[in-house]
Specification:
Elements: E1 3-5, H1 12-15, H2 26-39, H3 41-52, H4 63-72, H5 75-92, E2 100-105, E3 108-116, E4 119-123, H6 132-145, E5 149-153, H7 164-173, E6 177-179, H8 183-192, E7 202-204, H9 209-218, E8 223-224, E9 232-237, H10 243-254, E10 261-266, H11 269-283, H12 289-299, E11 301-304, H13 308-318, E12 322-326, H14 331-334, E13 342-345, H15 351-356, E14 382-390, H16 392-408, H17 412-423
Parallel strand pairs: 1-11, 4-5, 4-7, 5-6, 7-8, 9-10, 9-12, 10-11, 12-13
Antiparallel strand pairs: 2-3, 3-14
Helix pairs in contact: 2-3, 2-8, 2-9, 4-7, 5-6, 5-7, 6-7, 8-9, 10-11, 10-12, 16-17
């Protein structure tokens, strides 16, 4: 049974069990990374046979396999994939931006140029599960950004196949190459390159503890999006909310993982009690009941507060991955939300809408990192360079100031670099 709390205040760390603990696999991951660096494709074939039980003759998915997958997917679901991809494209295209030039002083031109990353790697969990939504959410923004090469890695089944929905989504989203590798070894291959797998500039996408730890260890060699923790949802609800909806939304995240966290904060005792009853009713019919029940019993909570404003205060302290505002006037609270990954407004906007088809990205900051991090976006697939130009005359006007700054910091060569140019003119 889910816990109902009525304490005046509970520290946020007591509400969300959200630590990303990968230390116990760090040594194993380091060995895998070192092996891939040393032995390349040979190590990848060995790990694929060991962990995925698949003895492969080639690592890369062929064009034929992709076409067969597209033909195998039900036409109705293919249309859903295409619609989702279009919605993601329409939302993310608004994130595109160009550089700028500043020239407001005589003889001075400065600016910034925005350029796509050349090669990015997308990790997609696979095997017996299919996550075509992950493919779309990661690949569509990369394609919009203008990345020349989008490399996807995903574990295969023992027969060497990849679920057709994943390959179909990859084709729709514009993935350029796909490899049948997963785990820490796939991250290592993307970070360092092998005979077959190209080295990329950034790795994005979710994974298990081994994947998360591998991303942590290769960071610096390549960029990464984030170290994702277990899924989490926080729901703010007033008396107008529907307990059946609230329970379903909380369980939609609880079924992800036994470590997932689902919390409801409400100013209504009736909503709290009825939602707790509904959670028990709905749990019994879930195919992933064992996982969801463990999440709810260990991490789930319903908190009764005196006011919705108190609920907002707690939400901002928690900085949840997903935040649902199920109140009579949800937009009235939007400006008060300071820390959240993705915000869902109203009683007809459940979190799964964002997972699959609405358009905003579902790769979100977890573990309280919404205090300083943002959802995956086009910005994750670009880099910026700045440029500066001064004419001789413009530089002469500031050279002594540059030298004075340099001398104050103890850098004589810096100062000389400036002064030598105006001395040379006299």
């Amino acid at each position: 049974m889910i816990k109902i709390l009525r304490a005046a205040y509970t520290p946020p760390e007591k509400l969300f069990e959200r630590a990303v603990n990968t230390g116990d696999v760090a040594d194993t991951v380091r060995e895998i990374i070192d092996n891939v660096q040393k032995n390349g494709d040979k190590a990848l074939f060995e790990y694929t046979e060991k962990f995925d039980k698949a003895k492969l003759s080639t690592l890369e998915v062929s064009d034929k396999e992709i076409e067969e997958a597209v033909n195998e997917v039900e036409p109705s679901f293919l249309e859903i994939i295409k619609e989702a991809a279009e919605n993601i494209h329409e939302f993310h295209k608004n994130q595109l931006r160009s550089g700028f030039i500043v020239s407001n002083k005589p003889g001075v031109v400065m600016g910034q140029k925005v350029m796509p990353l050349e090669k990015v790697g997308i990790y997609v969990p696979g095997g017996t599960a299919a996550y075509p939504s992950t493919v779309l959410m990661n690949a569509v923004p990369a394609k919009l950004a203008g990345c020349a090469e989008i490399v996807m890695v995903t574990p295969c089944n023992p027969d060497g196949s990849i679920m057709p929905e994943i390959l179909c989504a990859a084709k729709v989203a514009g993935v350029t190459r796909i490899f049948k590798i997963g785990g820490a070894q796939a991250v290592a291959a993307l970070a360092y390159g092998t005979e077959t797998v190209p080295r990329v500039d950034k790795i994005v996408g979710p994974g298990n503890r081994y994947v998360a730890e591998a991303k942590r260890q290769v960071f610096g060699q390549v960029a990464i999006d984030m170290i994702a923790g277990p899924s989490e949802i926080l729901v703010i609800a007033d008396r107008t909310a529907n307990p059946r909806f609230l329970a379903a939304d909380m369980l939609s995240q609880a079924e992800h993982d036994k470590l997932a966290t689902a919390v409801l904060i409400t100013d209504s005792e009736e909503i709290a009690t009825e939602t707790a009853k509904e959670i028990e009713i709905q749990l019994s019919s879930l195919s992933r009941e064992e996982i969801a029940r463990a999440s709810i019993e260990n991490n789930g909570k319903i908190i009764v507060v005196k006011s919705i404003s108190e609920a907002v205060k707690i939400a901002n302290e928690i900085a949840p991955e997903h935040l649902e505002i199920c109140t009579e006037r949800p937009f009235d609270l939007l400006s008060e939300i300071k820390n959240a990954g993705s915000i869902f407004l109203g009683n007809s906007c459940p979190e799964p809408l964002g997972d699959y088809i609405a358009g905003p990205n579902h790769t979100l900051p977890t573990s309280g990192t919404a205090r300083f991090s943002s959802p995956l976006s086009v910005d994750d697939f670009v880099k910026k360079s700045q440029f500066t130009y001064f004419t001789d005359e413009a530089f002469a006007d500031v050279a002594e100031k540059v030298a004075a700054f340099a001398e104050k910091e103890g850098f004589g060569a810096h100062a000389r670099s400036a002064i030598i140019r105006i001395d040379n003119k006299t």
